[in-house]
Amino acid sequence: MKKFFTSLQTKLVISFLLLILVITGGTFLITNTQSKKALLDSTRDDMLQTVALVSTQFTAADLQTLSGFKAGDDGSPAYLSMIRRLRDMRSLSPNMVNFYIMSIAGNNISFVVDDAVSGPALVGDVYTDPDPRLFDAVAAPSVSDNFYTDAWGTFISAYAPLKDANGNTAFVVGGDMDASQVITRQNFIGTTIYYIMAGAILFAGFMIAIFSVTIIKDIKKLDKTADEISKGNTKVSVDVHRSDEIGDLADSFGRMVASLKIMMDMDEQPGDK
Amino acid sequence: MSILSDKVAALSVNYFGPAARKFLERQTTAHMNGIAFDDLQKNDLAELAKWINVSGSLIIDKVKAKELSDKVVSM
User: Fold this and answer.
1) How far is A224 from chain B (nearest CA, A)?
2) pLDDT of A130-150, one tens digit each?
3) Which of A64, A111, A196, B20 could form a disulfide with A121 if both were Cys (CB 3.0 to 4.6 A apart)?
């Protein structure tokens, strides 16, 4: 009896399974990575458009109002009115968790308005660990390259300049999306791909198992017949019925066995000739 | 040696291999009143087909023996 690890069936099954694992693993890795990247890019584009659109809603008078805000004005009617406007706009973009307006002077960034419901930045609060893309928004709308973490959490953000009548950037409006929302979507894609791949592996494994078992079963039949003939048992016959290469082999083998048996029988009964 | 016996032998080689003719000779001499296989006539085919099926089933697969028998009887 052949040892398990040297048997043709084991080699065949292991080879096919390794092949499937390599192919599906590579496909999963590439598909998962690319689809997550595509989702992130799509989210970034959507955020950029949203914040750019928000930036168009501010008039010269609004900028004048914003310029007048100073520390301690957080409860003033003008400030609360600005907060309401930002929240109204945010209600049209349910995926955005926060809109805010900042002033940028060189490398110094300070909050002017923040519509966050919980723990908002106050007028004049300095933003100490900004997303690097925030500075790009002085020139043109920009969006985070990836998730970043600051004092309020992990976000992906988009920014757009608020320009005065002379075309100079007076403020920058920003919008945040909670990273968990994007990650949840990415995980959904990853999980879906994972289940599809797992199903494909199971199905392929099942088909390979059937394929290899049927081939090996017939090869074992041929092997057993040859073994019996070699030991002088002429009562056996080749019982393999296939229309593929194994079937052709069985037919050839059957003819050889039949001839051998005829010759052996004649040797046993020489008078019959 | 007749054309008919050659045709039967050629057909049988596909089932019994190179010893087919010896198998057929044995069937005719042992079961068909001792006639030589080379003297096979058309009216002997039915009897030969029967013995191909009977004796052949002891050597090759029954299905194949029946298949050859049917081919011989229809020659």
Assistant:
1) 15
2) 888 999 999 999 999 988 888
3) A111
